[in-house]
Amino acid sequence: MQLLKKILDIYISGSIHVALAVYALVRMTFYFFHISCNTSMAGFAFFGTIVGYNFVKYDALARVKKLKMSSQLKIIVLLSVFAFFATAYCFFQLEVKTKCIAVGFLLLTMLYTLPFFPKIGNARNWAGIKIYIVAFCWAGITLFLPIINADLPLSGDVWLKFFQRFLLVIILILIFEIIDLKNDEVSLQTVPQRLGVQKTKILNLILLVPFYCLEFFRSDFQIQQLWINLILVAVLALFTLFSSPKRSDYYTSFWVESVPVFWWILVLVFS
């Protein structure tokens, strides 16, 4: 049992689980826009997420020398090195214009992590900004990159899906922020710190309405997708209602981050 817990911790701490969520959203983009599965595009998103998230999580600690090289961290470092080379390989298989957009997201990630502006720190510590940067990156990488790489136009349906993905990530992050309330510094000014837990939950439940209703405006929306999204909205509502700073970190780092994968599975099973 102890071994399984260690494996799970490496799986989560090494950002494999969050990378699987990103991969699921990329595959959903392939499905919704009738794009042939592009392993290079999907692989770039998956391995790039591992590299990006591990860089964000461990870079600051490494620079202030607060990291102890435990066996778990050594495995995560090796995983990140492998993911970096896999990301580079997939990157060079992409179309030129996709590479340019991907570099833009890389620069945004670096802005989020590195203190380019000493007086105000990195974007991760800009009060109220973090949530939008993360949502934009998730929605852009999982939707715009596959669309651009397939040489498809940025149609109205693409923008609708972008806003829907953007809202999904905002909703997930707000649940994270409720759980992390006990650990977050006051200077971060997260939504639960400013509004309180109950008002944040109400806000999240309100955001579920436009998230669901955007599906009606798609030019080729299908009834079955409305039912699929209704199931997803119900799950997100339950995660929101039962979120609390007293919950275990696994509540978000495993269960809540599984939502995109769950959504993808629903699409595969019922579509």
Average of pLDDT: 88
Point out poorly predicted stretches: none
At the first level of CATH, the class of the largest domain is: Mainly Alpha
The rounded Rg comes to 19 Å
Percent of residues in beta strands: under 5%
- Helical content class: over 70%
- Tell me, briefly, the overall form: globular
Distance between the termini: 37 Å
CATH topology of the largest domain: Tetracycline Repressor, domain 2
> What's the total count of β strands?
0
Class by alpha and beta content: mainly alpha
Structure description:
The chain is mainly α and 271 residues long. The protein folds into 2 domains: 10-152, Tetracycline Repressor, domain 2, CATH 1.10.357; 153-271. It is built from 12 helices and no strands. It has helices spanning 2-13, 16-32, 39-63, 71-91, 96-113, 130-149, 156-179, 191-195, 197-213, 223-241, 250-255, 259-270. Helix 3 (39-63) packs parallel to helix 5. The longest helix has 25 residues, at 39-63. It is globular.
